[in-house]
Give the backbone structure.
Amino acid sequence: MFTGIIETFGKVKEIHKEEENLRFVVETDITSELQIDQSVSHNGVCLTVTKIDGNQYDVVAVKETLDKTTLGSLQVGDIVNIERAMMVGDRLDGHIVQGHVDGKATLKKIIEVDGSHEFYFELDPNLDFFLVNKGSVCIDGVSLTVVKTQDKNFHVAIIPYTYEHTIFHQYKVGDTVNIEFDVLGKYIQQYLQKLKL
């Protein structure tokens, strides 16, 4: 489990195709604090550390993860948002994030507003029913509040600190991002579907 509060950046140093999977070698300033078998969020995707070598570590993304997320489009040299799993007893500054991406969204517009930024996204089809005005959403691992929704479109406001300390400052119109919706909303939706309401 994660909070959606990005801890640091990671740099993709190597990518190796292993049958239908991809093995990523990532470099961070917290690698020395990691352990093999530890869960780490990479742009919102929970992956398991399989090897540590100096300031670099390995993680593997299976085909299903590559199909559902943006990890398959990463290239050597790309920067990713990194967060380690939350510790029991810590403050929950973001919201409960599982690192299980629900789908993708496309960035349609960026507007600068008095020093902050508004980012407008369009969701993949059949995902918009999870969105709630003023509810939580996780974009590439970043816990955010939905400002407004309309059909399959929504936007979020990014304060300067978040803009600089996440990969939001790298985004360009047309980019695709990983989306994870609020876990409580997903449980409620599944419960209602079982009741056929």
About this structure: The longest helix spans residues 183-195. The chain has a mean pLDDT of 90. The helical segments are 63-68, 160-165, 183-195. Residues 11 and 79 are 5 Å apart (CA to CA).
